[in-house]
Amino acid sequence: MRHGPRGAPTRDVLLVSAIITISLSVTVVLCGLCHWCQRKLGKRYKNSLETVGTPDSGRGRSEKKAIKLPAGGKAVDTALVPGQTPHDESDRRTEPRSSVSDLVNSLTSEMLMLSPGSEEDEAHEGCSRENLGRIQFSVGYNFQESTLTVKILKAQELPAKDFSGTSDPFVKIYLLPDKKHKLETKVKRKNLNPHWNETFLFEGFPYEKVVQRVLYLQVLDYDRFSRNDPIGEVSIPLNKVDLTQMQTFWKDLKPCSDGSGSRGELLLSLCYNPSANSIIVNIIKARNLKAMDIGGTSDPYVKVWLMYKDKRVEKKKTVTMKRNLNPIFNESFAFDIPTEKLRETTIVITVMDKDRLSRNDVIGKIYLSWKSGPGEVRHWKDMIARPRQPVAQWHQLKA
């Protein structure tokens, strides 16, 4: 080795030392980056696990559309593992294969398959209160015969009110304020787009009285076993219609007004046990029930029907609470329901008023299934998403 004056290192030795120092520095930096990358990848993978574990989170809902249920009822998983986007191929290779397999298996479990969770379902539930379908009808007046003619033509996009996913619609026709005299169309079985093409005549009706009336159409779903379910209504003042010739209208159906006011609410919980193939319904309490008796009170009790494919399978009922509009029941009932039958199952809960001298009165009903109203569907989905856990929710009683 060559040395300069007084033993100082030469230029070559200094150059070699500098290269070694830079190499060591680069190695340290790369090691730090490597650990940082591992932490980032680990965090991303952890987030994907958390997303699957919380199906009620906002991210979980948007990614449930990876699971679609065809008509046959078998699940088809056609999308990516939640938390992974198409450009994450390099990240996915760093994840343990067994963990990814566990993720997919958890998503394709039978319980999640039975829970309707696509974005299309969410959108449908959100608008089901608004979209009640529409009805087409014609109105005209014959001055020579003093006769008002009303033709009920057809309806479109009616909501399903029956357990089978359809309705049996018919139309009632009134000339308000007279509600005693009404006319009705025929019932169209299992039809959400019915065609009636029926003509109704209000004969001997002076024109001066006709223009003081309101044509009121109410579309209902016929029910052989209980009270008919209202679907929607349309009203049109006849003084705003040119009756000299037949006028045809398309009108959106609006929610039926209930002149009797609120029927009250019921708090109940649902608990599904997939291993035992059972649902436990706990009738907890009610509040602000409608008074059905002359004394301004009611004697409520609750009936719980298990329905499968439009057929009544099993019935349970609570005790009667005398003269109480805010009763506390706290009674539980277990129903055997195999997992493969959940999609065709409906639980019908009816709050009744006990009457010793006459027929018991219906205060209100609740239909619980995966295809009921928005609130009921939410409760049903929460029950399926959280097996073996009681899920409680308040429900508004309906006519």
UniProtKB/TrEMBL annotation:
<keyword id="KW-0966">Cell projection</keyword>
<dbReference type="GO" id="GO:0005765">
    <property type="term" value="C:lysosomal membrane"/>
</dbReference>
<keyword id="KW-0564">Palmitate</keyword>
<dbReference type="GO" id="GO:0017158">
    <property type="term" value="P:regulation of calcium ion-dependent exocytosis"/>
</dbReference>
<dbReference type="GO" id="GO:0051050">
    <property type="term" value="P:positive regulation of transport"/>
</dbReference>
<comment type="similarity">
    <text>Belongs to the synaptotagmin family.</text>
</comment>
<keyword id="KW-1133">Transmembrane helix</keyword>
<dbReference type="InterPro" id="IPR035892">
    <property type="entry name" value="C2_domain_sf"/>
</dbReference>
<keyword id="KW-0458">Lysosome</keyword>
<feature type="transmembrane region" description="Helical">
    <location>
        <begin position="13"/>
        <end position="36"/>
    </location>
</feature>
<keyword id="KW-0576">Peroxisome</keyword>
<keyword id="KW-0472">Membrane</keyword>
<keyword id="KW-0112">Calmodulin-binding</keyword>
<comment type="subunit">
    <text>Homodimer. Can also form heterodimers with SYT6, SYT9 and SYT10. Interacts with calmodulin (CALM1, CALM2 or CALM3). Interacts with CD63; required for localization to lysosomes. Interacts with APP.</text>
</comment>
<feature type="domain" description="C2">
    <location>
        <begin position="262"/>
        <end position="395"/>
    </location>
</feature>
<feature type="domain" description="C2">
    <location>
        <begin position="131"/>
        <end position="251"/>
    </location>
</feature>
<dbReference type="GO" id="GO:0030670">
    <property type="term" value="C:phagocytic vesicle membrane"/>
</dbReference>
<dbReference type="GO" id="GO:1990927">
    <property type="term" value="P:calcium ion regulated lysosome exocytosis"/>
</dbReference>
<keyword id="KW-0812">Transmembrane</keyword>
<feature type="region of interest" description="Disordered">
    <location>
        <begin position="49"/>
        <end position="101"/>
    </location>
</feature>
<dbReference type="GO" id="GO:0001786">
    <property type="term" value="F:phosphatidylserine binding"/>
</dbReference>
<dbReference type="GO" id="GO:0030672">
    <property type="term" value="C:synaptic vesicle membrane"/>
</dbReference>
<dbReference type="GO" id="GO:0005778">
    <property type="term" value="C:peroxisomal membrane"/>
</dbReference>
<keyword id="KW-0968">Cytoplasmic vesicle</keyword>
<dbReference type="GO" id="GO:0030276">
    <property type="term" value="F:clathrin binding"/>
</dbReference>
<keyword id="KW-0479">Metal-binding</keyword>
<dbReference type="GO" id="GO:0030424">
    <property type="term" value="C:axon"/>
</dbReference>
<keyword id="KW-0106">Calcium</keyword>
<dbReference type="InterPro" id="IPR037741">
    <property type="entry name" value="C2B_Synaptotagmin-7"/>
</dbReference>
<dbReference type="GO" id="GO:0000149">
    <property type="term" value="F:SNARE binding"/>
</dbReference>
<keyword id="KW-0597">Phosphoprotein</keyword>
<dbReference type="InterPro" id="IPR000008">
    <property type="entry name" value="C2_dom"/>
</dbReference>
<dbReference type="GO" id="GO:0030100">
    <property type="term" value="P:regulation of endocytosis"/>
</dbReference>
<keyword id="KW-0268">Exocytosis</keyword>
<dbReference type="GO" id="GO:0006906">
    <property type="term" value="P:vesicle fusion"/>
</dbReference>
<keyword id="KW-0677">Repeat</keyword>
<dbReference type="GO" id="GO:0005509">
    <property type="term" value="F:calcium ion binding"/>
</dbReference>
<dbReference type="Pfam" id="PF00168">
    <property type="entry name" value="C2"/>
</dbReference>
<dbReference type="GO" id="GO:0005516">
    <property type="term" value="F:calmodulin binding"/>
</dbReference>
<keyword id="KW-0449">Lipoprotein</keyword>
<dbReference type="InterPro" id="IPR001565">
    <property type="entry name" value="Synaptotagmin"/>
</dbReference>
<feature type="compositionally biased region" description="Basic and acidic residues">
    <location>
        <begin position="86"/>
        <end position="96"/>
    </location>
</feature>
